[in-house]
Amino acid sequence: MGYGDQLMGSGLARGAAARGKRVALGDGRRILWDKHSEEIFRGNPNLAPPGSERDPDIEWMPFYKGHRLYNKRLGPRWKWNFAFHAVPGELFFGASELTAGRRYSTGFVVIEPQSAQWKSVAANKDWGVKNFQAVADRLKAAGFRVVQFRGDLSAVALQGVEQLGTRSFRDALAVLAHAALYIGGEGGLHHGAAAVGIPAVVLFGGFIPPSVTGYATHTNLTGGAEACGSLNPCPHCRKAMQAISVGHVVAAAASHLSEPSRKYG
Ligand SMILES: [Zn+2]
Predict the structure, then answer these.
(1) Domain range annotation of the chain
(2) How far apart (Å, rounded) are the C-alpha atoms in residues 152 and 95?
(3) Ligand 1 centroid to residue 173 C-alpha, Å
(4) Residues in the 5 Å CB sphere of ion ligand 1
């Protein structure tokens, strides 16, 4: 799994250090971090790294790869746990990371036209690059600075959209912290936007329910569908995405961007 799970893990651990505790994400015997964990948990006083299993301040939380609390595998689909509600995650940036995060200034709109293409569910989470291009065009015409992150895994560059180079996902989040808005699919960057306190318009569609992995401060668009969790390309999910118009997304974006209380970096 990707960065979203790590960010949700940091949300589950919120406040532990203030109670004199550290949360151990694992099975009660071993702390089970994966290849993305250290990048997200670096500097976080609420989380205990592997090797601290026997420390006295540990609180176990059974959240790890293969056991994510918010879903269960049921044949060809995920069964969602509707009792689970994602809590915004936390990042603890160092001084140089904070400085680097300001290098593209503030107040821009980040748009990400593709969710993780290497996952089998990609088709069910795909709103379409053309639609994202249309949203970018309309926001630009309205005078907004629209940008996209360029990293190792971003395949599609929208036309006429400023491409911001990023060194890592963590670096992208340090930059995202200075955005006015994020627009994109359900995935690492929408969890990241919540973690750095940035509003978002999230294209959920019909695969995964916003009540489980969404955030109340975001506009979460489902196209009116109940989430199916299907791990195979699914007509119901395609319909859900088709029910979300460019106009919906632009209107949701405009309402976030006109909020007088929004704060930039
Ligand atoms: Zn579906």
Answers:
(1) 3-69, 97-257
(2) 24
(3) 30
(4) 206, 228, 230, 234, 236-237
Per-residue pLDDT reduced to its tens digit, 60-72 = 999 999 999 999 9
Helix, strand, coil in percent for the chain, rounding step 5: 30, 20, 50
Return phi, psi of residue 89, to 5°: -75, -175
Q: Which residues contact 53 (CB under 8 A, 6 or more apart)?
A: 24, 26, 29, 30, 31
Tens digit of each residue's pLDDT (9 = 90 or more) over 229-252: 999 999 999 999 999 999 999 999
Q: Report how far ligand 1's centroid is from the alpha carbon of 214 (Å).
A: 17
| Encoded tokens for 182 | 């994020």
Alpha helices in 64-187 (DSSP H): 95-101, 129-141, 169-176
- The amino acid occupying position 260 is P
Contacts of 33 (CB under 8 A, 6+ apart): 25, 41, 49, 50, 64
CATH architecture of the domain covering 97-257? 3-Layer(aba) Sandwich (3.40)
Where b means 16+ CB within 10 Å and e means fewer, 158-197 reads beebeebebeebbbbbbbbbbbbbbbbbbbbbbbbbbbbe
